[in-house]
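In practice, a research group might receive sequence data for several interacting partners and want a quick structural hypothesis before committing to experiments. The following worked case mirrors that situation: the sequences arrive first, and a predicted assembly follows.
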Amino acid sequence: MELNERKTKILEAIIRNYLETGDPVGSRTLSRYLDIKLSPATIRNEMSDLEEMGYILQPHTSSGRIPSDKGYRFYVDSMMADREKEVSDMHDMVVEKAEELSGLLKQVAKLLADNTNYAALISSPQLHRNKLKFLQLSKVDDGNILAVIVVEGNIIKNKMIEVSEPMDDDTLLKLNLLLNTHLNGLSLEEINLGLITLIKERAGIHSDVIASVIDAVADAIRADEDLEIYTSGANNIFKYPELADNEKASSIISTFEEKNELGQLINESLAKDRDREDGEKTGIQVYIGNESPIESMKDCSVVTATYELGDNMKGMMSIIGPKRMDYEKVAHALKTLQEQLDTLYKK
Amino acid sequence: MELNERKTKILEAIIRNYLETGDPVGSRTLSRYLDIKLSPATIRNEMSDLEEMGYILQPHTSSGRIPSDKGYRFYVDSMMADREKEVSDMHDMVVEKAEELSGLLKQVAKLLADNTNYAALISSPQLHRNKLKFLQLSKVDDGNILAVIVVEGNIIKNKMIEVSEPMDDDTLLKLNLLLNTHLNGLSLEEINLGLITLIKERAGIHSDVIASVIDAVADAIRADEDLEIYTSGANNIFKYPELADNEKASSIISTFEEKNELGQLINESLAKDRDREDGEKTGIQVYIGNESPIESMKDCSVVTATYELGDNMKGMMSIIGPKRMDYEKVAHALKTLQEQLDTLYKK
DNA sequence: GTTAGCACTCGTTTAATTTGAGTGCTAATA
DNA sequence: TATTAGCACTCAAATTAAACGAGTGCTAAC
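A structural hypothesis for the assembly, expressed as tokens:
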């Protein structure tokens, strides 16, 4: 069977109506709602076809139809195609450049959640390539030496190293020189065991300090270490009855709180984004129901977008809501913030 | 009327029973549950008295009684009095010393939540007095200077400062000297406008860099800036029907997510802890229902404990659950972690 | 191809009924 | 005087029954 124009119109009407009300929609309602004049009976026939084709389904015999995952998928795809649509009832979302990255990301998550009334999350940007840019040991007091490490992208890492006896300025200077000459500009792969042993040898009695420093450097460079996730508006799910029963709500909230499962979503989304042909799309992805990589979100839709923060640092943000979420509004919100973030550190 | 021994026993039996089952408890049940032999009728008379005295109440005529907030308060107070009780069914809770403070605190929050099946939170420790301990500017690359600031308690703060043109090593050295001679060892109150102006004058053309540094120093020293709150197990509240309805659950979850309201709880709890006579109690507080400073937790009980991490840095942890929570288990869990944290950095 | 008509389905709503745990009061008992 | 048995009463919760109504599929007429 073919999805002709009339069927398409009816399918869209069903979905639109369901998005608005959240109730299954019947033939009589559609007959009034549609711009083409058709009797309920005719529409019933078409709906019967649409159901057979898998686009809609009945929660139970003798109730209206609701979109199936396939139906949503069709709707989202065709919606994404004509992207010029303006969404009006969105507040201005302006990101203010924050002192700290974490503050900025928290701000973005909150903006997304507050403006859409769904749950939102954003990941800290992942560095593309990590090279050591700056390394310095300083004496803080007699028992402590502070290692400051800066890697590409100006990510800063500190480590306090305890020493059993005070280290004089001269030794410190030498260690600094030693570390910098050997390590500066190197990436994780390039710092191998041979090099480490060499440095330790040269450091002589201070090799234990060096070991601590190198540990810290490895930590700083390893990307997955820094993967921070900021969430906001998880409690918004209570606004949607189909997600608000204890079982579902609990598992969604718990996923949001633990955060480790969210990592999968982020990785998958970033990977997909990397694969797509350049220039083609805007980097927005939609996971409907079971399409989502996260088990506890099988009754939700997840919309993700990647962003780029200046120096090739890519991160991901996402909105999670009921399947009948307002996809246009959500996509628009994500795009807006995407653009703002992209330009924020560009200037 | 007086709370004699028999009334006390009955009251305790009511509360114990209610803690176990969560159902209102009636005279017949009590008659079986009590060790002294009394007929339901007698018990009814006593219950009637207890109700008049405000220790228990009926959800509706012709149902059993449940403890009032006053009843819980009585129970908690008398329970706290004999503190030697051993709680058996608690898993071993061992905190492993973590690299980063934030990791440690997350671990503690999770331990508390997992072991008690209630929601848990822990605040980062608040410094008692904040003095600048170490300050250093370093050149990271031509366009960026990194300021590293360490304050008492080894809290480290970084700030990247952009400069329009490269700064040579000599100038940097001079600025470092200038800042250190004037600022080292000072507290927030001592860094006044006069001093700032003086330093800026001496810095000449680099006064804008100095301004940024001093901003960062102020940030680092101000205590409330660092107040981080880590939560875990918020979704545990779904395990208790009396908290699991949408309205309540939503508001509790939202408080946990926003976190800013939790600050009040932390401050109040730390303040109360400071006020108590030394050596008297263990620093554990119980807020029952409306006693809690947080509006959204009026149907919960909140148990808080302070901890001390080495250098006079005090923080607070808390467990939030239904009023009928297992107070002994919770108090025991908090004490266990309290002791572990106290010794962790003492060694 | 479209539509009106009709019998049928089935979740939802409302009301009525039953059940049962629990109470207060009174009178009998120890 | 304190305790207890007995009994009528209350009321939330569970159960059952009936009515409702939105919606369907099918058939026959247009």
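Before designing any experiment, note the following. The longest helix of chain A spans residues 327-344. Chain A has eleven helices and ten strands.
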